[in-house]
Amino acid sequence: MLRFEDLMAARILDRQVPDKRAPILDAVGRLRSSHSPKSLLASLVEGEVLTMDQARWVHAQVERYKRSRSVAVYGHLLAREGLPADRVRRLVEQVGPDADLNGLGDAVVAAGQLTPQREQQLRFQARLAADRDQASQVQTWLAAHPATGSEEQTQVDLVAPPVGALAGALGPPDPGGSGALRLPPDPGASAVLRLGEVAAALAGPAQEEARRIVRGTLSDADDELPGPQFRIPEWIDMSDPRTGKQLAGYRILGRVGAGAMGTVYLVDRQDDPTRPVALKLLPSDASSDAKGRFKREILANSFFSHPGVIEILDAGTTEQGHAFMAMEFFDGSDLAVVLDAEKRLPPRRALLLARQVLEALAACHAAGVVHRDIKPGNILVSRDGETAKLMDFGIALVRELGEFEGAVFRSMEGGVTGTPEFMSPEQAGGDTLGEASDLYSLGCVLYLMLSGRLPFESESSQGFISCHLLEDPLPLARAHADAKALPRELLDVVDALLRKAPDERPKGAAAVVEVIDQVLPRLRDKTGRVGLWGMLWGR
Known about the structure:
Layout: H1 4-16, H2 21-32, H3 40-46, H4 52-80, H5 85-95, H6 101-110, H7 116-144, H8 195-201, H9 204-217, H10 220-223, E1 246-247, E2 250-259, E3 262-269, E4 277-281, H11 288-301, E5 312-317, E6 323-328, E7 332-334, H12 335-342, H13 347-366, E8 369-370, E9 379-382, E10 388-390, E11 397-398, H14 404-408, H15 425-428, H16 435-451, H17 461-470, H18 488-497, H19 509-519, H20 532-537
Antiparallel strand pairs: 1-2, 2-3, 3-4, 4-6, 5-6, 7-9, 8-11, 9-10
């Protein structure tokens, strides 16, 4: 999946390291035909084309350019409201180095220049216009560069040249083609706009570009849309065609993500406008299995509630026949994305996240619900890396249903259900499952967080199933060079979680939490770059 950020990063790199054009274009080609959320920079770091510091610097330039365009559009909308340009510049100086779209908008309200409602509306329109313009640039570029696999079809001009504020910030091409990306003194330079850049975005060529963007992206209907009463995270895709439309009493503000099980949107609701909500929408032609998972998730969540589990607020069917589920909105990404970028986590952070999932599992098990699909993709992690929430009870086993279970969810009968890499032996063998099965799967996740690898390695789903049934996992102490230095109690409990026999595993999630609480005071993680995965994955 090729995004605007990828095209901008490619253009910067083409200017800075033209001798690396071949691997860069190869990575661009792979992205355009892939559904992976991985960014161009993540691919280039993984392929050792760029160092992490180089990727961070390029990312900072892209973010500054994007913010410059948003501020330029916002400045144009303010000018249409009658705010003098010099007044806006003074507000920029007042805000200081944090003068991005949100900081400037707050300053406009604080200075009494606009009512909060009108300012929220203009800020919403500015984001909508900027995101639609970015999506349009991507589509224009894709149409102009067919996927032929030929480098001649994918040349230097990856996106339109930057406007006003950042026209010179990307630097000239590397004349020697040395491949040594020129970094500023601080390779991790902030993506916050400098005051001079913001000022430039509010005048001259940048404003001409802003007028063009507004004319090309906002309709009369968009002008009437009220702004939400909360900030829309920057990673939300507001260019989605459904943005601004009403659905089942909710107003769509942008897309959170999409997958085989439907699309998730950020929405608000008139009767509770201050609360962001995630709306999961299932296609009307969804398979019977998808519909069964949808029903099961709603039902399982009705049996218990816990702060560590994504809360379901509402569910139903739209007039167009789409099943929907309204959930608590969580500003973060799943653990699979985090681990793909960071490979493994510092022990203290890994245990803090695992502890929260275990507490959620304890509540789940007490209500007679077995999750059956504990894996990194079903654990959400906040952007600061400190909070974890369990989600997706689409294949959960609900004891209260008894024989009714099979009658309601016939689409899930037959064969093994779950994710092979994290499946307990009894689940892999099709046997009766209890809470010990979830603990085994959580043990696989904890093993992966601490070592950077799975307890077993295989090239196929059937191979993983066989490993869980027949092979002993490599002890955690031998899985990574640093793992043997972990406290013995932690090594022992992870190994115990991965025992073949359910009755040989810890007696409940609370027992594992007790061990973690004993170990945590002895762990001191080095200060790291928490949230780096967000930069590399565009979140």
